Write a sequence for this structure.
């Protein structure tokens, strides 16, 4: 037995109220609703497009994937604003209109199946639209484009994980592939080198990553100790660095500049101080930087080798006993 | 239907004490009465709420200014770990069990829970969990957050025993909740009043039924996970250590397989409270009883299928991201349906603005924001920007404070008369709501912007860049306004115990059976349990009394209508 059937006859008369309600108030209600809807839509769009970068929308402007996320966010925000204003509007309206007054009698309505189906479908449609928009924009966010013609000349990057892997690579397979390693409380960047260059002879840097503009940079992200999260807001979303796994992201910067960010996954006491930054320079300047860095590292390695040999020699020749 | 004219007894509240009520602290320690256990639950969890609130205020002081040095990094990390864990495991989840303990048997017309001794055990295990956890304050509190992600929580990176205290808290409160859940389930399944079919179960009881089922499904998973963590920490098993064939991501999957249902465990009973309060004060039946009950069950089912939306930033195949986006979208639908039904319940009612109603309406208006920001986070490319920032802190507090806490306060104001026989002060209640509502929104609305401005969560300090300084100051000021609001209710409760207006059995003219007994109810609750003929048995009772006596007699006095004056 449904709860409705358990009621007295007086209530059953009231059960028909939704239909009456639909007729009597339909026109005003529809007008109010249309107006509210239009206002909300306009307001939402105005907010979303004109919003200052940090009050209502995420940071963007460094790389096209960050811009696409920003656009997607604004679409969600516009839809959300409409729903928010609509629901809060009806809520406030009912609170004002239907507060207890003398002689007011509450309508004994128990439900309305058509309405129930209506708003379930309505909510579903909104979410389907959001899903479709997300799928439409996903390619641009997930898959990197080719570097520009005047970008830094980059080799074809090997796939680390076979065909089924999900790491993003540009269509032509060429990108500047940098390994990002999170360690408490710093980031280490290892630049690509020719095959069989030993690890300690590769160009590496901490905290600041220097990259060429107009060039697709792909990142292979992992962690040394605990989990961290790579995040430079203006260059796209964050990607966790998890020990034993490789995560991926990319960016392509058009204008030289410095982009800041910090670790976004709790990694210990100094998590708040684990900062990172990306400095984008013209491809030619990057080439000079990379070569200088390489020389520096080679010299250091050579110096270290010489010192080690000297030490070894010193160890081999027995030290003269002090008198 | 029954012929109206046959002589039927006029319903009247009869409940006699079988024995004089035991007093003294021993009687509380040894009690198996569901009402006393309920009160012990409510008081204990509220004390933990206040503790967690103090921890929150300390954090907000630290964040009130950039580069502040009020707290050390390790103290800050300990504070958010204590705060998050306390609020989840020692406040919201068990306070719902407290309400359920007291009111579930009364609402279904039972004289106690199915297993009264087990019920007492649940409470004492909860208290033990809280003591073990806070015991860590005397050596080294945990610092890995309420999620205790491996490898940060491993013995290599968290060598002190704080994490172990956290693990034991999970175990003890977990067993407590599991026993409680089994007890609720058994009570609802077997001890309903004559005539109370599933279609006449009060919506709060529906929500506790689903709460119990979710606990039974989710808790064993976290119990297993923390046991693996314990053996990793002390016996070198390496389940979460990639260098020993384990995997840190395994922890995240297990944790969130429990953790997301936990979110709904924390909010569904709140939904239940709102669904009880709204119709009483709108003087209108709940709109869409079946839709609300069905959406509760649907939410519970979907809640088991969305866990990896907390892991969108981990290395994941696109198909995983897409699946968990869609499943998270799906769960937004029944949640929306509930909100629509509540608003429709108010529509064309005659709304009486008593404190329980005001808290319920406040709940709807802010929970909506939490639900909407949840959709932002479900769109995984957007989540890549928002996750692990203050946007998420804002979202979770809109759901947990704007949602659960406001519902809890609605419940306190609604049921206090039944538990104590006295009304809570109305005007102080309204002031409390005002401070809480404004303070809450000032604290947390701006945190969306803090996150969008690039500030990650769980950071003890931030540089003076962008608008972070002013935004954070606003948030800190708001938290103190919120604290004043909470403090007013504490004062109200303490005061009203002594000077509150006498409530009588049914001060709100409510719908459900707990009001068919004196306030406070005697040990055995009811001598005669009325036959249940609809979802609103008290309405039927009142109607029958009016019909048989020819006058609309009130069952008991009605002092709620006259404002108590301070
Ligand atoms: C009473 C006012 C409250 C204030 C001012 C407050 C403030 C805070 C602050 C400052 C943080 C730390 C953010 C961070 O550093 O990442 C936090 C985290 C948290 N809060 Fe609250 N909170 C309040 C109430 C609550 C309530 C009632 C709940 C639960 C029902 C709750 C649940 C949490 C959780 C789960 C976390 C995350 C902890 C973690 O990151 O491990 N809070 N809150
Ligand atoms: Cu970190
Ligand atoms: Cu979740």
């Amino acid at each position: 037995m449904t709860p409705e059937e358990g009621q007295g006859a007086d209530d059953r008369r009231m059960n028909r109220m939704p239909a009456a309600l639909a007729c009597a108030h339909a026109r005003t209600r529809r007008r109010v609703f249309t107006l509210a809807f239009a206002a909300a839509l306009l307001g939402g769009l105005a907010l979303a497009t004109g919003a200052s970068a940090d009050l209502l929308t995420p940071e963007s402007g460094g790389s096209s994937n960050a811009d696409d996320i920003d656009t997607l966010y604004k679409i969600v925000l516009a839809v959300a604003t409409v729903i928010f204003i609509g629901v809060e509007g009806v809520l406030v309206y009912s609170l004002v209109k239907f507060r207890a007054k003398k002689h007011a009698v509450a309508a004994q309505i128990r439900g309305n199946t058509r309405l129930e189906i209506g708003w379930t479908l309505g909510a579903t449609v909104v979410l389907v639209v959001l899903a479709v928009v997300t799928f439409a924009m996903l390619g641009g966010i997930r898959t990197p484009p080719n570097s520009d013609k005047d970008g830094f000349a980059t080799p074809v990057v090997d796939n680390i994980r076979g065909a089924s892997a999900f790491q993003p690579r540009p269509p032509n397979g060429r990108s500047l592939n940098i390994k990002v390693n999170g360690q408490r409380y710093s980031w280490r960047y290892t630049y690509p080198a020719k095959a069989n260059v030993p690890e300690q002879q590769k160009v590496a840097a901490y905290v600041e990553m220097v990259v060429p503009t107009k060039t697709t940079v792909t990142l292979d992200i992992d962690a040394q100790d605990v989990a961290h999260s790579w995040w430079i807001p203006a260059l796209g979303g964050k990607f966790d660095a998890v020990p034993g796994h490789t995560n991926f992201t990319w960016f392509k910067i058009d204008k030289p500049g410095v982009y800041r960010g910090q670790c976004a996954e709790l990694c210990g006491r100094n998590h708040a101080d684990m900062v990172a930054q990306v400095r984008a320079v013209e491809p030619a300047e990057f080439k000079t930087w990379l070569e200088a860095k390489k020389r520096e590292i080679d010299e250091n390695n050579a110096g270290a080798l010489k010192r080690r040999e000297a030490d070894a020699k010193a160890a081999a020749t027995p030290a003269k006993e002090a008198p | 239907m029954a012929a109206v004219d046959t002589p039927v007894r006029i319903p009247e509240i009869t409940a006699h004490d079988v024995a004089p009520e035991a007093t003294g602290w021993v009687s509380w320690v040894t009690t198996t009465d569901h009402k006393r256990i309920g009160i012990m639950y409510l008081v204990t969890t509220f004390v933990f709420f206040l503790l967690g609130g103090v921890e929150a205020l300390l954090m907000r002081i630290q964040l009130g200014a950039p580069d502040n040095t009020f707290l050390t990094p390790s103290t800050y990390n300990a504070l958010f770990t204590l705060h998050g864990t306390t609020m989840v495991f020692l406040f919201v989840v068990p306070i719902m069990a407290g309400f359920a303990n007291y009111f579930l048997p009364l609402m279904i017309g039972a004289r106690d829970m199915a297993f009264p001794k087990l019920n007492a055990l649940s409470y004492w295990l909860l208290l033990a969990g809280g003591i073990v956890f806070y015991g860590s304050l005397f050596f080294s509190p945990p610092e890995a957050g309420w999620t205790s992600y491996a490898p940060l929580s491993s013995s290599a990176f968290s060598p002190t025993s704080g994490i172990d205290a956290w693990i034991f808290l999970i175990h003890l409160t977990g067993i407590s909740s599991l026993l409680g859940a089994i007890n609720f389930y058994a009570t609802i399944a077997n001890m309903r009043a004559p005539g109370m079919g599933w279609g006449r179960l009060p919506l709060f009881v529906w929500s506790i039924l689903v709460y119990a089922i979710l606990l039974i499904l989710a808790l064993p998973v976290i119990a297993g996970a923390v046991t693996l963590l314990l053996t990793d920490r002390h016996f070198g098993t390496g389940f979460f250590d990639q260098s020993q064939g384990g995997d840190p991501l395994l922890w995240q999957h297990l944790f969130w397989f429990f953790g997301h249902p936990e979110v709904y465990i924390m909010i569904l009973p709140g939904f239940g409270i709102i669904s009880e309060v709204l119709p009483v004060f709108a003087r209108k039946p709940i709109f869409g009883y079946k839709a609300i009950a069905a959406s509760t069950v649907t939410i519970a089912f979907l809640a088991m299928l969305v866990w990896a939306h907390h892991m969108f930033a981990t290395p994941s195949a696109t198909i995983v991201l897409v699946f968990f986006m869609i499943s998270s979208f799906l769960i937004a639908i029944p949640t929306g349906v509930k909100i629509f039904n509540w608003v429709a319940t108010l529509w064309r009612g005659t709304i009486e603005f008593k404190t329980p109603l005001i808290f319920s309406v406040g709940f709807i208006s802010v929970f909506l924001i939490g639900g909407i920001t949840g959709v932002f986070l479900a769109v995984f490319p957007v989540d890549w920007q928002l996750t692990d920032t203050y946007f998420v802190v804002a979202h979770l507090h809109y759901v947990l404070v704007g949602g659960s806490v406001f519902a809890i306060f609605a419940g306190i104001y609604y049921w206090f008369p039944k538990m104590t026989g006295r009304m809570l002060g109305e005007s102080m209640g309204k002031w409390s709501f005002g401070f809480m509502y404004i303070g809450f929104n000032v604290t947390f609305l701006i945190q969306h912007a803090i996150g969008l401005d690039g500030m990650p969560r769980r950071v003890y300090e931030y540089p003076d860049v962008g608008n972070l300084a002013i935004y954070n100051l606003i948030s800190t000021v708001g938290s103190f306004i919120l604290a004043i609001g909470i403090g007013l209710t504490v004062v109200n409760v303490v005061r009203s115990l002594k000077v509150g207006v006498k409530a009588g059995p049914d001060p709100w003219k409510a719908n459900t059976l707990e009001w068919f007994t004196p306030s406070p109810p005697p040990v055995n609750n009811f001598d005669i349990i009325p036959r249940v003929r609809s979802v609103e048995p008290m309405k039927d009772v009142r109607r029958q009394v009016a019909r048989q006596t020819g006058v609309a007699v009130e069952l008991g006095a009605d002092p709620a209508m006259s404002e108590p004056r301070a």
Chain A touches chain B through 91 residues (CB under 8 Å). The longest strand of chain A covers residues 176-183.
